[in-house]
């Protein structure tokens, strides 16, 4: 199950899907069988431009294709797949476990908290040598899954705390590999990927200002045409689409989780007038901001 060349590897928005990120949450959690059985237990090699996966295998096995190398993993193992890492899975039909997907804003926040020790920065996997090691990870994953599926007051804060604890535990495995577990699979990188990562970091820092692509390209040290080429090649979206996707995600979050008026959300996200924000939102979701908010509240 070797990976295709980087330029031809498909970009999936969420674990085999190509539609937009389906929720205003910055985290998505599901059991591995939920989706993999729909694909005959095989997810072909692909990559994500702005998502990070954490997989925990509690039962069964998986053939992992990660950055051009194949690995056979049994139960009691964890897999880290950062943005842009090429990965594919072939699970055994008896597999049990979970996949936790982090949107880039949350992954970046965790990077800042953990610094260079963050386990999310490099592709790799862990085989747990002792039962208590996998039990600690399994407990956190189960708590995340339960909280994700059964919303309650303080849900966002608790989910973020649990994910932070999970990343701390995984980062300890990176920091003390000989004492705890063994990590494999260094991530490959190149100048194009670095430019894309720098661009995404600038988007995260400045999206509310709605800067021009030319301004951002100049900050990176490339032309806007070259930046667009890299974005289309590595993320299959234009540079402007990536900026707009971040704006749209924040708009969804503010409409769902705050009491800000439509006008206030519009102003907070750098739109010159609410009418322009409404057109932007409806063009990308088919719903007006008001209708989207009503639907979200009806589902809660």
Mind sketching the topology for me?
Blueprint: E1 27-31, H1 32-36, E2 42-46, E3 51-59, E4 62-66, E5 69-73, E6 77-81, E7 87-91, E8 96-103, H2 104-114, E9 124-128, H3 131-149, H4 155-175, E10 181-184, H5 191-206, H6 213-220, H7 224-235, H8 239-257, H9 262-268, H10 274-285, H11 289-299
Antiparallel strand pairs: 1-8, 2-7, 3-6, 3-8, 4-5, 4-7, 6-9, 9-10
Helix pairs in contact: 3-4, 5-7, 8-11, 9-10
Describe this entry's structure for a reader.
With 300 residues, the protein is an alpha+beta fold. It has two domains: 6-184, Sandwich (Jelly Rolls); 191-299, Arc Repressor Mutant, subunit A (Orthogonal Bundle). The chain contains eleven helices and ten strands. It has helices at residues 32-36, 104-114, 131-149, 155-175, 191-206, 213-220, 224-235, 239-257, 262-268, 274-285, 289-299; strands at 27-31, 42-46, 51-59, 62-66, 69-73, 77-81, 87-91, 96-103, 124-128, 181-184. The strands form two sheets. Strands 1-8-3-6-9-10 form a six-stranded antiparallel β-sheet. A four-stranded antiparallel β-sheet has the order 2-7-4-5, with no helix packed on it. A hairpin with a 2-residue loop joins β4 (62-66) and β5. α3 packs antiparallel against α4 and α9 (262-268) packs across α10.
